[in-house]
Protein backbone atom coordinates (compact mmCIF):
# COMPACT_ATOMS: atom_id res chain seq x y z
CA UNK A 1 0.00 0.00 0.00
CA UNK A 2 1.10 3.55 -0.75
CA UNK A 3 2.59 4.99 2.49
CA UNK A 4 1.35 8.51 1.64
CA UNK A 5 -1.87 9.56 3.37
CA UNK A 6 -4.48 10.41 0.78
CA UNK A 7 -7.76 12.23 0.27
CA UNK A 8 -10.60 12.56 -2.20
CA UNK A 9 -12.07 16.08 -2.30
CA UNK A 10 -15.17 16.65 -4.43
CA UNK A 11 -15.95 20.14 -5.67
CA UNK A 12 -12.26 21.04 -5.56
CA UNK A 13 -11.93 23.11 -8.73
CA UNK A 14 -12.61 26.36 -6.82
CA UNK A 15 -13.58 27.89 -3.49
CA UNK A 16 -13.60 25.76 -0.35
CA UNK A 17 -12.58 22.49 -2.01
CA UNK A 18 -9.56 24.05 -3.70
CA UNK A 19 -8.38 25.66 -0.43
CA UNK A 20 -8.80 22.31 1.36
CA UNK A 21 -6.73 20.49 -1.29
CA UNK A 22 -3.92 23.06 -0.90
CA UNK A 23 -4.01 22.62 2.90
CA UNK A 24 -4.07 18.81 2.66
CA UNK A 25 -0.94 18.78 0.52
CA UNK A 26 0.77 20.96 3.14
CA UNK A 27 -0.21 18.22 5.60
CA UNK A 28 1.33 15.54 3.36
CA UNK A 29 -1.77 14.08 1.68
CA UNK A 30 -1.85 12.90 -1.93
CA UNK A 31 -5.16 14.04 -3.39
CA UNK A 32 -7.73 13.02 -5.98
CA UNK A 33 -9.48 16.24 -7.01
CA UNK A 34 -13.02 15.87 -8.34
CA UNK A 35 -15.27 18.45 -10.00
CA UNK A 36 -17.71 18.76 -12.88
CA UNK A 37 -16.10 20.99 -15.53
CA UNK A 38 -12.89 19.46 -16.92
CA UNK A 39 -11.16 22.66 -18.03
CA UNK A 40 -11.74 24.50 -14.75
CA UNK A 41 -10.59 21.44 -12.80
CA UNK A 42 -7.45 21.13 -14.92
CA UNK A 43 -6.57 24.78 -14.23
CA UNK A 44 -7.04 24.17 -10.50
CA UNK A 45 -4.92 21.00 -10.63
CA UNK A 46 -2.13 22.94 -12.34
CA UNK A 47 -2.28 25.64 -9.66
CA UNK A 48 -2.08 23.03 -6.90
CA UNK A 49 0.71 21.08 -8.64
CA UNK A 50 2.81 24.24 -9.04
CA UNK A 51 3.66 23.83 -5.35
CA UNK A 52 5.98 20.85 -4.76
CA UNK A 53 4.38 18.13 -2.65
CA UNK A 54 2.53 14.83 -2.66
CA UNK A 55 0.84 13.64 -5.90
CA UNK A 56 -2.34 15.30 -7.17
CA UNK A 57 -4.74 13.80 -9.69
CA UNK A 58 -7.90 15.23 -11.19
CA UNK A 59 -11.06 13.44 -12.32
CA UNK A 60 -13.78 15.45 -14.05
CA UNK A 61 -17.41 14.38 -14.03
CA UNK A 62 -20.70 14.87 -12.24
CA UNK A 63 -21.12 13.47 -8.75
CA UNK A 64 -24.82 13.20 -9.63
CA UNK A 65 -23.89 10.20 -11.85
CA UNK A 66 -23.45 7.00 -9.86
CA UNK A 67 -21.15 5.53 -12.52
CA UNK A 68 -18.80 8.49 -12.09
CA UNK A 69 -18.65 7.92 -8.33
CA UNK A 70 -17.59 4.30 -9.02
CA UNK A 71 -14.91 5.64 -11.37
CA UNK A 72 -13.58 7.97 -8.64
CA UNK A 73 -13.34 5.12 -6.11
CA UNK A 74 -11.71 2.77 -8.64
CA UNK A 75 -9.17 5.42 -9.61
CA UNK A 76 -8.29 6.26 -6.01
CA UNK A 77 -8.01 2.55 -5.13
CA UNK A 78 -5.61 1.91 -8.00
CA UNK A 79 -3.57 5.02 -7.21
CA UNK A 80 -3.40 5.08 -3.41
CA UNK A 81 -4.87 1.78 -2.13
CA UNK A 82 -6.45 3.48 0.90
CA UNK A 83 -8.33 6.67 1.74
CA UNK A 84 -7.50 8.67 4.86
CA UNK A 85 -9.92 11.54 4.24
CA UNK A 86 -13.02 11.80 2.08
CA UNK A 87 -14.40 15.31 1.75
CA UNK A 88 -17.86 15.41 0.21
CA UNK A 89 -17.84 19.06 -0.72
CA UNK A 90 -19.36 19.48 -4.22
CA UNK A 91 -22.53 21.52 -4.01
CA UNK A 92 -24.98 23.69 -5.89
CA UNK A 93 -27.29 26.44 -4.68
CA UNK A 94 -30.10 28.18 -6.49
CA UNK A 95 -31.90 31.15 -4.98
CA UNK A 96 -35.53 30.15 -5.54
CA UNK A 97 -38.64 31.20 -3.59
CA UNK A 98 -40.79 28.34 -2.29
CA UNK A 99 -43.49 29.23 -4.81
CA UNK A 100 -41.11 28.50 -7.69
CA UNK A 101 -39.68 25.17 -6.49
CA UNK A 102 -40.03 22.47 -9.16
CA UNK A 103 -39.38 18.73 -9.14
CA UNK A 104 -36.46 19.32 -11.50
CA UNK A 105 -34.83 21.90 -9.20
CA UNK A 106 -35.30 19.60 -6.19
CA UNK A 107 -33.90 16.54 -7.97
CA UNK A 108 -30.84 18.51 -9.11
CA UNK A 109 -30.09 19.80 -5.58
CA UNK A 110 -30.73 16.40 -4.01
CA UNK A 111 -28.53 14.54 -6.50
CA UNK A 112 -25.46 16.74 -5.92
CA UNK A 113 -25.87 18.01 -2.35
CA UNK A 114 -27.21 14.87 -0.66
CA UNK A 115 -27.39 11.68 -2.75
CA UNK A 116 -23.76 11.93 -3.90
CA UNK A 117 -22.59 12.45 -0.30
CA UNK A 118 -24.24 9.23 0.91
CA UNK A 119 -23.32 7.19 -2.16
CA UNK A 120 -19.67 8.20 -2.37
CA UNK A 121 -19.22 7.58 1.36
CA UNK A 122 -20.79 4.14 1.03
CA UNK A 123 -18.67 3.24 -1.99
CA UNK A 124 -15.51 4.54 -0.25
CA UNK A 125 -15.92 2.43 2.90
CA UNK A 126 -13.48 -0.36 1.88
CA UNK A 127 -10.86 2.31 1.12
CA UNK A 128 -11.49 4.11 4.42
CA UNK A 129 -11.27 0.78 6.25
CA UNK A 130 -7.93 0.11 4.53
CA UNK A 131 -6.64 3.42 5.96
CA UNK A 132 -7.89 2.45 9.42
CA UNK A 133 -6.07 -0.89 9.10
CA UNK A 134 -2.86 0.86 8.04
CA UNK A 135 -2.89 3.97 10.21
CA UNK A 136 -5.58 3.48 12.87
CA UNK A 137 -8.00 6.15 11.70
CA UNK A 138 -9.77 7.67 8.70
CA UNK A 139 -12.27 10.48 8.32
CA UNK A 140 -15.22 11.74 6.31
CA UNK A 141 -15.80 15.48 6.14
CA UNK A 142 -19.14 16.59 4.69
CA UNK A 143 -19.70 20.20 3.69
CA UNK A 144 -23.14 21.15 4.93
CA UNK A 145 -23.93 24.83 5.52
CA UNK A 146 -25.21 27.33 8.01
CA UNK A 147 -28.39 26.95 5.90
CA UNK A 148 -28.45 23.28 6.97
CA UNK A 149 -28.54 24.42 10.62
CA UNK A 150 -31.04 27.24 10.09
CA UNK A 151 -32.98 27.16 6.84
CA UNK A 152 -32.72 30.37 4.83
CA UNK A 153 -35.38 32.28 2.87
CA UNK A 154 -35.24 31.64 -0.88
CA UNK A 155 -32.90 28.71 -0.30
CA UNK A 156 -35.54 26.08 0.51
CA UNK A 157 -34.17 23.27 -1.67
CA UNK A 158 -30.59 24.07 -0.69
CA UNK A 159 -31.40 24.29 3.04
CA UNK A 160 -33.29 20.99 2.99
CA UNK A 161 -30.52 19.10 1.19
CA UNK A 162 -27.87 20.54 3.53
CA UNK A 163 -29.92 19.61 6.63
CA UNK A 164 -30.01 16.06 5.23
CA UNK A 165 -26.20 16.10 5.12
CA UNK A 166 -26.19 16.83 8.86
CA UNK A 167 -28.51 13.87 9.50
CA UNK A 168 -26.29 11.56 7.49
CA UNK A 169 -23.11 12.78 9.21
CA UNK A 170 -24.65 12.08 12.62
CA UNK A 171 -25.69 8.58 11.47
CA UNK A 172 -22.18 7.96 10.15
CA UNK A 173 -20.73 8.98 13.50
CA UNK A 174 -23.10 6.65 15.36
CA UNK A 175 -22.37 3.74 13.03
CA UNK A 176 -18.65 3.93 12.30
CA UNK A 177 -16.79 6.15 14.78
CA UNK A 178 -15.98 3.17 17.00
CA UNK A 179 -14.56 1.42 13.91
CA UNK A 180 -12.04 4.25 13.50
CA UNK A 181 -13.91 6.29 10.87
CA UNK A 182 -14.61 9.81 12.11
CA UNK A 183 -17.36 11.97 10.63
CA UNK A 184 -17.45 15.76 10.62
CA UNK A 185 -20.04 18.15 9.18
CA UNK A 186 -18.79 21.61 8.23
CA UNK A 187 -21.44 24.35 8.45
CA UNK A 188 -20.16 27.68 7.13
CA UNK A 189 -21.97 30.96 6.76
CA UNK A 190 -21.29 33.05 3.66
CA UNK A 191 -17.89 32.14 2.16
CA UNK A 192 -16.02 34.17 -0.46
CA UNK A 193 -16.30 31.72 -3.38
CA UNK A 194 -18.01 31.72 -6.79
CA UNK A 195 -21.14 30.41 -5.01
CA UNK A 196 -21.39 33.76 -3.23
CA UNK A 197 -21.25 35.79 -6.46
CA UNK A 198 -24.94 36.71 -6.31
CA UNK A 199 -24.52 38.38 -2.91
CA UNK A 200 -21.51 40.54 -3.75
CA UNK A 201 -23.68 43.61 -4.32
CA UNK A 202 -24.83 43.46 -0.65
CA UNK A 203 -21.86 41.89 1.16
CA UNK A 204 -18.27 42.76 0.30
CA UNK A 205 -15.75 39.89 0.02
CA UNK A 206 -13.85 41.29 3.01
CA UNK A 207 -16.95 40.64 5.15
CA UNK A 208 -17.25 37.03 4.00
CA UNK A 209 -15.54 33.97 5.51
CA UNK A 210 -12.38 33.09 3.54
CA UNK A 211 -12.11 29.63 1.91
CA UNK A 212 -8.83 29.30 3.81
CA UNK A 213 -10.76 29.60 7.10
CA UNK A 214 -12.67 26.44 6.22
CA UNK A 215 -9.42 24.73 5.24
CA UNK A 216 -7.91 25.63 8.63
CA UNK A 217 -10.91 24.10 10.42
CA UNK A 218 -10.48 20.88 8.40
CA UNK A 219 -6.72 20.95 9.10
CA UNK A 220 -7.49 20.92 12.82
CA UNK A 221 -9.57 17.73 12.42
CA UNK A 222 -6.68 16.00 10.58
CA UNK A 223 -4.29 16.71 13.46
CA UNK A 224 -6.39 15.25 16.28
CA UNK A 225 -5.53 11.94 17.88
CA UNK A 226 -7.49 8.81 16.95
CA UNK A 227 -9.36 9.10 20.25
CA UNK A 228 -10.84 12.54 19.48
CA UNK A 229 -13.52 13.37 16.91
CA UNK A 230 -15.31 16.61 16.02
CA UNK A 231 -18.86 15.86 14.79
CA UNK A 232 -19.74 19.36 13.63
CA UNK A 233 -18.02 22.68 12.98
CA UNK A 234 -20.04 25.88 12.55
CA UNK A 235 -18.19 28.84 11.07
CA UNK A 236 -20.12 32.13 11.13
CA UNK A 237 -19.59 35.71 10.13
CA UNK A 238 -19.70 37.95 13.23
CA UNK A 239 -23.13 39.25 12.14
CA UNK A 240 -24.72 35.79 11.80
CA UNK A 241 -27.22 34.47 14.36
CA UNK A 242 -27.49 37.89 16.02
CA UNK A 243 -31.05 39.16 16.42
CA UNK A 244 -31.65 42.74 15.30
CA UNK A 245 -32.36 45.05 18.30
CA UNK A 246 -36.03 45.47 17.28
CA UNK A 247 -36.73 41.72 16.93
N1 LIG B 1 -19.88 29.79 -0.52
C1 LIG B 1 -20.69 29.74 0.53
O1 LIG B 1 -21.16 30.77 1.03
C2 LIG B 1 -21.00 28.41 1.18
C3 LIG B 1 -21.55 28.43 2.46
C4 LIG B 1 -21.84 27.21 3.07
C5 LIG B 1 -21.61 26.03 2.41
N2 LIG B 1 -21.09 26.05 1.15
C6 LIG B 1 -20.87 24.77 0.50
O2 LIG B 1 -19.49 24.63 0.22
C7 LIG B 1 -19.31 23.70 -0.84
C8 LIG B 1 -18.31 24.24 -1.83
O3 LIG B 1 -18.86 25.40 -2.45
P1 LIG B 1 -18.02 26.73 -2.71
O4 LIG B 1 -18.62 27.79 -1.89
O5 LIG B 1 -16.57 26.46 -2.59
O6 LIG B 1 -18.47 27.06 -4.20
P2 LIG B 1 -17.75 26.82 -5.62
O7 LIG B 1 -16.45 27.51 -5.64
O8 LIG B 1 -18.79 27.17 -6.62
O9 LIG B 1 -17.47 25.25 -5.63
C9 LIG B 1 -18.43 24.30 -5.94
C10 LIG B 1 -17.68 23.09 -6.43
O10 LIG B 1 -18.61 22.00 -6.62
C11 LIG B 1 -18.42 21.48 -7.93
N3 LIG B 1 -19.65 20.89 -8.42
C12 LIG B 1 -20.87 21.44 -8.56
N4 LIG B 1 -21.73 20.57 -9.10
C13 LIG B 1 -21.04 19.42 -9.30
C14 LIG B 1 -21.35 18.15 -9.83
N5 LIG B 1 -22.58 17.86 -10.27
N6 LIG B 1 -20.38 17.21 -9.90
C15 LIG B 1 -19.12 17.48 -9.47
N7 LIG B 1 -18.77 18.66 -8.95
C16 LIG B 1 -19.71 19.62 -8.87
C17 LIG B 1 -17.99 22.68 -8.74
O11 LIG B 1 -17.42 22.28 -9.98
P3 LIG B 1 -17.89 23.09 -11.32
O12 LIG B 1 -17.57 24.53 -11.06
O13 LIG B 1 -17.15 22.45 -12.42
O14 LIG B 1 -19.39 22.86 -11.38
C18 LIG B 1 -17.01 23.32 -7.79
O15 LIG B 1 -15.78 22.65 -7.83
C19 LIG B 1 -20.71 23.44 -1.41
O16 LIG B 1 -21.20 22.21 -0.93
C20 LIG B 1 -21.53 24.58 -0.84
O17 LIG B 1 -22.89 24.25 -0.74
C21 LIG B 1 -20.77 27.21 0.53
From TrEMBL:
Gene3D superfamilies: NAD(P)-binding Rossmann-like Domain. The keyword Nucleus does not apply. InterPro entries: NAD(P)-bd_dom_sf, Sc_DH/Rdtase_CS, SDR_fam, Sec_Metab_Biosynth_SDR. The keyword NADP applies. Keywords: NADP, Oxidoreductase. This is SDR family oxidoreductase. Belongs to the short-chain dehydrogenases/reductases (SDR) family. It holds the Pfam family adh_short.
